[in-house]
Fold these 4 entries.
Entry 1:
Amino acid sequence: MNPPLTFPLRAGEMPTQWYNLLADFPEPLPPPLHPGTREPVTPDLMMGLFPESLVAQEMSNERWIEIPAAVRDVYALYRPTPLLRAVRLEKALQTPAHIYYKYEGVSPAGSHKPNTAIPQAYYNKLAGTKRLATETGAGQWGSSLAFACSVFGLECNIYMVKVSFNQKPYRKMLMQTYGATVHASPSTQTEFGRKVLAETPDSNGSLGIAISEAIEDTMKHPGTKYALGSVLNHVCLHQSVIGEEAIKQMELAGEEPDVIFGCAGGGSNFAGLAFPFVRRKLKDGRRTRIVAVEPASCPSLTRGELRYDFGDTAETTPLMMMHTLGHNFMPPSIHAGGLRYHGMAPMVSHCLKLGLIEAMAYPQTKVFQSAVLFARSEGIVPAPESSHAIAAAVDEAVKCRTEGRKRVIVIGLSGNGLLDLAAYDTYLSGAMKDGPEGV
Ligand SMILES: *Cc1c(COP(=O)(O)O)cnc(C)c1O
């Protein structure tokens, strides 16, 4: 008979507070800087874009922050998310390792992103915001925010990178189903978009252009605020529910993780799973290895520099101290696997600097090979992003087999890949390639 596969939490065991690693860093995080003066940014500068409550969370050093009851009520639609033992994957790999995965793909939008979209919409509603503006690439963030806005009765205006708008229509339809308005960016809605269109009428758009449009939209419409789905401290904070639940679920499983793998694009799902375990390393002296896995074609942690850089191409955001490939970096066009951001959350970058986490990079064909193995053994089709963590876990499990050692491995499975089947099709048809240097 198989060992137990799931470790359900009871209602009273759900986290009621978010965990803020800023309170426990042995060295303080370098602050964001004003791009003009290069002085640390003041709260009032950020309050044009975000409500005061979220600005306060962004800068807070409180270790525990209460999750409002209204947010917990919405979390209850899909939380706690399951932690599963991947018994069939273990068998397929013939490994003595025990492999677990924390699955965020059960949320309405299919990823971890509603964990922050819900509180962001809630705090905006409370502050009297009528409308949120944001950008989205492939649409995971846009659909999460559209869902959260529908719950709290806010309008939602989304600038979606044009190439995705045309090539990946399903998440656009999902956003519209939740009631959001979606514009292909560059759009005619903003001065910046019109300028880009005048210069390059057939522009495919980019995340940088879409961010600039969403920020301009926010500044020009009274009652509108801006929302960001990764990178920022308050986003990492909201995602900590993932790791807090996982700690309790691993206790129910009666096992202590030796190594944790999470994928990293902007860093938010990785932070959410990892930071509560980082706390235990700092406080209880545990030796858990915690590994961020990124694409070899967009390797900000493994090949980027740690320095101050802009969050966007148009140089409108504050400067953040982070691992970066440069704010003009474009991932190679062969890259199909998501995780395209040039930078990395300052908090995740700081963890790497302090030696609290490690980082690895994987080429996309290896990622999809592991994704298909996972789908065929566990049944879940993983998001291409999440599959970076699976690929690293598979290598670790194979190492356990060759070394004849049991280890307990935890994978952060940030989402499902049901709206990413076109990328699977590219892989299965043999058309997917790695870059010149094996990226
Ligand atoms: C957006 C997304 C990511 C990347 O964002 P992070 O901020 O690095 O977590 C990873 N996985 C899934 C499923 C996503 O939707």
Entry 2:
Amino acid sequence: MSRHLSPHVSRPAERCVPPTAGLPLALSDLFGRVPGADSDLASGLARAFNLPWARIECSGTAALVIALTALQRLQPGRNEVIVPAYTCPLVAIAVAHCGLELRLCDLQPGRPDMDLDHLERLCGARTLAVLPTHLAGRVTDVAGAAALARRTGAFVIEDAAQALGARIGTESVGTQGDIGFFSLAVGKGLTLYEGGVLAARDPALRAACTRASEALARRHAGWELRRTLELVAYALCYRPALLGVVYGRPLRNALRAGDRVDAAGDLFDLRIPLHRPGRWRQSVGLRALGRLPAFIAGCTDRARRRRAQLESLPGIEVLGDSPVVPGAAGIWPVLLLRVSDAARRDRLLDRLWVAGCGIGLPFAHALPDYRRYASVVPWQDAGALPNARDFAARVLSLSNSPWLDDERFERLCAALVAD
Ligand SMILES: *Cc1c(COP(=O)(O)O)cnc(C)c1O
């Protein structure tokens, strides 16, 4: 430990670190020929990650809406969807969009995985789907959840929104459930500014997803123009010199206003845009995809080194993949830290989040504790979902962006033990 280092994790001229390790776009991704053999992004992704089938949608949330719609048509008598109680609020919004009922599953103590005893009690004749979730790239136990779901005739949708590139042995995550989905949003790795990917093995489910997608997600010139401009702006601005303006300043404003929901990037519209992502944006993703495997490998190396160093700090645990999944090899957009107690976690957040050094929250709250989403999340009394709420109160995320350099990481470690 470098005790002599300044406790100030950011020096005045230092630049802001993005909250996750997103793959930076090169300007050459915007133009020119697509290298390689694949003519479209879906087949490029299928080849790169050994997916049996892939379909591009306009967001991860849209992919989930399409998956739920497809399953609903196959099982119209079922209307409940079980999700982990600590996950992206967009999941709750998607379930409400489909007119389905959300059921919240508690987490395992100290882990982002669903508690299988609670899941077993929630599963029943009305369960349409269960959503095991690879939060922050950490591989979860899909097989355990699937065994419980299938016993009651429910489907499994694997939420791999934050886990494109994570594997179990040689298999990609997202392929063990009946349907899997990935996000191509900003900050989740490869990006089209907004985008999503559906995956499925079974030909009947692929056909059902395709039908639902064709019915729900039509071409829409207005949305495509907007996303095109946003993607170009992202390609220009996602670089160290500009992040302070496009990310750091709004972050500081949100924190100054005491708004952790805004600071965590959890302010979502309750209406979900559904449209077909255009060819040009998909070609940008396909050009960038060539660099993704090496980028993921670099993130994995850095995470391995930093995880060992963070684990040596008192009262800080770095969460790994589920220990019950042999061969799990997650990806590392962030390192998920669990702090010894909630008060200490809050003091660290108060001090470090504004510094723009990569410390923040994956999500601001467990789902029932957002006032903003009360209309799409069932009310829970204060004693319910104890593990999910404890997890939400003690977790921190640390960016694994290559722009957080070793020297600054050392200072951050010193600041983490200074509390
Ligand atoms: C981001 C996210 C989604 C939604 O994906 P978008 O592409 O942002 O719509 C769903 N689930 C989880 C766990 C996520 O992190």
Entry 3:
Amino acid sequence: MFYKSTRNSEVKVSSAQAIAQGISEDGGLFVPSEIPAITLDDIKALGEKSYAERAFFVFSKYLTDFTEAEIRYCVEGAYNTKNFDTDNIAELAHLFDGTYMLELWHGPTCAFKDMALQILPYLLTTSIKKLGVDKKVVILVATSGDTGKAALEGFKDVEGTEILVFYPEDGVSAMQKKQMTTQEGGNVGVCAIKGNFDDAQTGVKTIFTSKETADKLAENGMMFSSANSINWGRLAPQIIYYVSTYAQLVADGEIELGDKINIVVPTGNFGNILAGYYAKHMGIPVNKLICASNANNVLTDFIKTGVYDRNRPFHTTISPSMDILISSNLERLLYHLSGSDDAQIREWFGSLSKTGRYEVTDEVKKAIADEFYAGCCDDEQTKACIKEIYDEYSYTCDTHTAVAVKVYKDYAAATGDKTKTVIASTASPYKFSGSVLAAIGKDTNADEFGLVDELAEVSKIPVPASLAALKDKEVRFTKVIDKADMKDYIYSALGI
Ligand SMILES: *Cc1c(COP(=O)(O)O)cnc(C)c1O
């Protein structure tokens, strides 16, 4: 197994190289040269195993240049009850008949990003060691709220690394901001930018692929890498929970081995749902991958029409981690669906950066329609959905997850499809207490910690210890900069 660039199929690197580098020099994303297959027997056997063992199995298919001992070191370091508040690592809750909530937020920062970012530091430092690179790794992160904190928590005080996070000043929840600005650790930096997530992401990508900055870092014994889902080391761990969930549903007798399931994912950068696509093509029986968006519905339109057009207003919503108009990981999907046609990808993504728009071929449109369904909802519909689930099933879900539930309900009503369905629940409701309480019709005048106490009463979900502890933490990072000044901030933070 090796990894190619979506913009140059001739590139051929090991998984360690792909993870260490983060993004290809040509601006493309690394993809596996083939999608490894697993059998139904494999899946059945996984049903008896722990999450860490399931992770070991999946990683050993993708990280073929890692030794068994290296993979074990990574999965055991990440997926344990020191980091997660449940033995199962990811929990499956029943919602309504045939529908399961895959709770991916039992990690230290209460969002699904922990599933990958708890292990990425292990994968990355192991990769660096394997490659014999003697440089400090500087992790640059653009975040719409959750990745930043999860990456900071994963990388804090990890030897040989330094992490710098950029978030949109007005684009994250009060709790998300608090989580990031109070971050501890001697190798961390956090900075707000005047702009939205796309500005932050574009800024980071530009700095990453700039020769000038690469040279400057190299002169100082440093190199960049990425903790965003453009890094294969972020994506591979996300495949695991879909494989694991299917194995669990079989083991629990909820489905028969071989039965298809739908997977619904509240989507932003297209990383999480793409992991579902990889799981499907490895051999997990999946009927539809259902892509749920908020009012920033560029993906809904794309999946329905084959035209990607980011020339539209950017909406700041109550599901901020999905406020994205440029979904990076779509590039990986299109590379696979176009038969690894790197010239085609260069054309489409060149057009995206020049005009903000591209249209895929009829063949690719058909492939997308076969695999995906897409829908979206606005904030009012999201809130109504939170209230409905709360009233009917006594289940409190966060604003992102509610978008997925709403889109799934619309899908089920429109198609009559009765296939059992797994809905990715991507954040703890406590990260968005204000919006969740408002949706349920409660008072929201308190500060973010007062809201947490209120939500505890309403939801009966224990308050995550990591969020409660923020109350007494000192704010360490207050800098707000123009997006044009990101490079200067980085140089100054690194002291170069
Ligand atoms: C990041 C995030 C998403 C979007 O996931 P992508 O992989 O970017 O599509 C959805 N919900 C929450 C809570 C998130 O943090």
Entry 4:
Amino acid sequence: MSERMKIPLVDLKANYLSIKGEIDSAIRGVIDDTAFIMGGYVENFERNFANFCGAKHAIGCASGTAALHLALLAAGIGRNDEVITVPNTFIATAECITYVGAKIKFVDVTPETLLIDTDKIEPAVTPQTKAIIVVHLYGQTPDMERIKEIADEHDLVLIEDAAQAHAATFKEHQPGYYGNVATFSFFPAKNLGCFGDGGAVVTNDDDIAEKGRLLVNHGRKTKYEHIVEGFNYRLDALQAAILDAKLPHLNEWTRLRREHAKFYNDNLPPEVRLPFEASNCKHVYYMYVIRTERRDALMDHLKERGVSCGIHYPIPLHLQPAYAYMGHGQGDFPAAEKATKGILSIPIYPEMTREQSQYVIESIKQFFG
Ligand SMILES: *Cc1c(COP(=O)(O)O)cnc(C)c1O
């Protein structure tokens, strides 16, 4: 066994250093221009990110959470509407349903992918159901073609929470193609991350784009002409400039993530269950999530060996105190509940070296003996 190493779950410093010159000069440019709010830096990034996604519009905003809130509002979801989503996601997905006065309706996931179980969507639809938020958990999409069929059949708005899925595809199409609207987060640890909070709404729908653009900046048409009440949900120009410097590298970073995932797939011991990758999907491995019934003990062992791990997420939303009012209990969403006990996210990031992934694999093999 090799000497003890220290391996983070994600290495933001290594990522910065890999393109330090480009980032530093992007930041310098914004400061030299003292152009901090809206303007050219934000517009450039919006255009480049829309092009990258293969979509007509991208609206930069303050976070992935703000993007979800804007998407629901721009799509006309409001009071007493029901919105279907999954319980095994970050709370932001559900919070924004409440922000607009709508009701959360959870649907379980499939044990294999941990993504929404398409067979469970239709039974959950009622006359009040107005939208579905699918979550591209860990960087992989569910069967978007099937879900779009269901959404069309029941006249539901289809929203893609792509906070973890920049550059992911279903049948070659990125988020925003099947959905009426897709939302992204640029939280620093996400596959495309800025140096603080940031997000984007991506859509091919002109009406959603126009409403989103108004709402993101106080309902402004001109400086002091407000068409509607909106929000201060703007993306900072500094963040936009940083994102624009990083965007040209995203395809290469995604390729590296997938290469590291393949190395794990080929070399992890048979005792761990590997992440599932559907053949028509391009998984972008925001997280590489293994499963084992001995999860807690494995996690302790890896920590001792200097390998950082995470659990995404340890408590499904329907069992969170914040949602106690919904009256759910253990057993309501068995696949999501079972997953929380076995999942373990192990280090994956573009700059990871072969020596580091080898060490993670060795440490896991050592645990199983
Ligand atoms: C990160 C994340 C969000 C929220 O994004 P923020 O930028 O942190 O507001 C929403 N949904 C999912 C699935 C996420 O992973």
